Amino acid sequence: MAVLNFKVVIGLGILYGVIWSLVDQLAQLAFPYCDHPKKCFNYAEELAASVDTRINPCDNMYEHVCGKWDRLHPFPIPGAGGQFRVLQYRILSFLFSKLEQSPPNHPVLAVRRSVSAFQTCMDVYDEGREDTKVSWYS
C-alpha cells in the first residue's frame, strides 16, 4: 500500500511539475499579442478605470479607488474579483482547453503522459466510474 501511495505521490508531483513548466508556454499561446502575458494587463490603466470620481476619497477611500471595479469586471462570486484572479482564470481556462485536446506529439514523454492522464481522469469523472485503468508504463 505504501508503494502504491509513493507512486501516486511521484506521479502527481511529475504532473504538477510538467503543468507548472508549461504555464509560461501556454500563456504565450493564449496571449500572442503580448511580449509577455504579465504585460498584457496594464495595471495603471485598469486601476484608473476602476476609480469612481463621484466618491470623495476623504469620505471613502476604498469606494473612490475601486468603486467601478465590480461593474467593469463582473465575477460570478460577489467580492471575489481581483486582477490576479482574472488572470488566473484566463490562464486556467486556456490550459484546460489545451489539455482537453488530443495528446500532442510532444517530444517529452512526461508531457504526453500528463495530457493522457488528465484526459483519462476527465473521462472517468464524466462516465461516473471509480476506476482508471491507466497504464503508466506505455
Residues in β-strands, percent: under 5%
Mean of all residue-level pLDDT scores: 72
Largest sheet: none
What is the oligomeric state here? single chain
Q: Tell me the number of helical segments per DSSP (H or I, 4 or more residues long).
A: 7
- In which range does the helix fraction lie? 55-70%
**Distance between the amino and carboxyl termini:** 22 Å
Catalogue the unreliable spans: none
Shape summary: elongated
What's the domain count? 1
The H/E string reads HHHHHHH
Give the number of DSSP strands.
0
Radius of gyration: 21 Å
Class based on secondary structure composition and strand pairing: mainly alpha
GO molecular function, one term: metalloendopeptidase activity
Protein name: Peptidase M13 N-terminal domain-containing protein
GO biological process, one term: proteolysis
InterPro entries: MetalloPept_cat_dom_sf, Peptidase_M13, Peptidase_M13_dom_2
What keywords describe this structure?
138 residues; mainly alpha; 7 helices
Q: What is the gist of this entry?
A:
The protein has 138 residues and is an all-alpha fold.
